[in-house]
Amino acid sequence: MSKELAVVATMAAGGLAAAQAPANNIISQKVGDLGAVTVNFLFGTVMVLVVTYAFAGGIEVDKAEPTPAWYYWILGALAGVVIVLFGLIAVREVGASGVTVAIIAGQLALSVVLDQLGVLGLEQRSITWEKLLGIALLAVAVFLIVRE
Question: Structure pTM?
Fold first, then answer.
């Protein structure tokens, strides 16, 4: 996949993510917050298994690769639960745009730090003034979108 296509596909996924918190909030009215998170992940698991087996031929295990440490398995799952749970709770107060911009701001701020440290399997990439400016502008965007 080209860099340009990756950016466009990710932006499309981000558009869908904007609808996730409101949809989960509606579900939470019936089954509660943690019930909605559970439903989200149960249906998501079924969907990803269908896609994995229908389009990718199943799950492939590379026996030459070492098994990742236990905390990588936990971190990915925990991050997903936290994003879904806090997104569906926060959408009640700040709306879909507020949740989306806040999640993006948090992702950007921590991702710049992770890149700088070169951790979690990432190639080290320095923090630049342009990246800091981007974070600052996104912080302003959060303020402008959630204030009322």
Answer: 0.84
